[in-house]
Amino acid sequence: MKKILFFAGSNSSKSINHKLVSFAASQIAGHTVEVIKLTDYQLPMYGEDIEKEKSYSVDLRMLNNKIKEADALVISVNEHNGMVSAYFKNTIDWLSRLDRNFLEGKKVLLMSTSNGKRGAASALEYTKSVLPRFGATIVESFSFPSYSENFSEETNSISNEVLLMGFTDVIQNFVHQLEQ
């Protein structure tokens, strides 16, 4: 049994990426899953002066420990103007300053969603290219387009059958990779 940590890269209180990652967690059986919100870990905007003056916060160390304790991660990234949010980048900046290889040995499923037809694909591609620098192994990825049209919050499920099949396939492949 593997321990899988789930979170979204968004700081929105109504984050659709958090809803997607929570749905993904509900689809995993036979493993320990934990869904967290990055907003529970207060991190100031990264700057060398802050790092030198205040060092690394307790919240940063707690988040880093959560990641260290997990065997794998499922992360859903949001997109602002074709890029990852400054909030998520700031979190990565702090984690990588504390420990350059903070994702060493972690298998990662990356997801993204938006209400647009591309499903935050630009942010997803950027994140796929960046996380391996910190030790991550990206084993699967999934871009979920037009969230409001394809996800039912009433039933907490994917309403588009084709997307549901693709999503299920990605989850099953990810779990299979963890079990090898």
UniProtKB/TrEMBL annotation:
Signal peptide: none annotated. This is NAD(P)H-dependent oxidoreductase. Residues 3-143 form the NADPH-dependent FMN reductase-like domain. It comes from Aequorivita lipolytica. Gene3D superfamilies: 3.40.50.360. Pfam families: FMN_red. GO terms for molecular function: FMN binding; oxidoreductase activity. GO terms for cellular component: cytosol. PANTHER family: CHROMATE REDUCTASE, NAD(P)H-DEPENDENT FMN REDUCTASE LOT6.
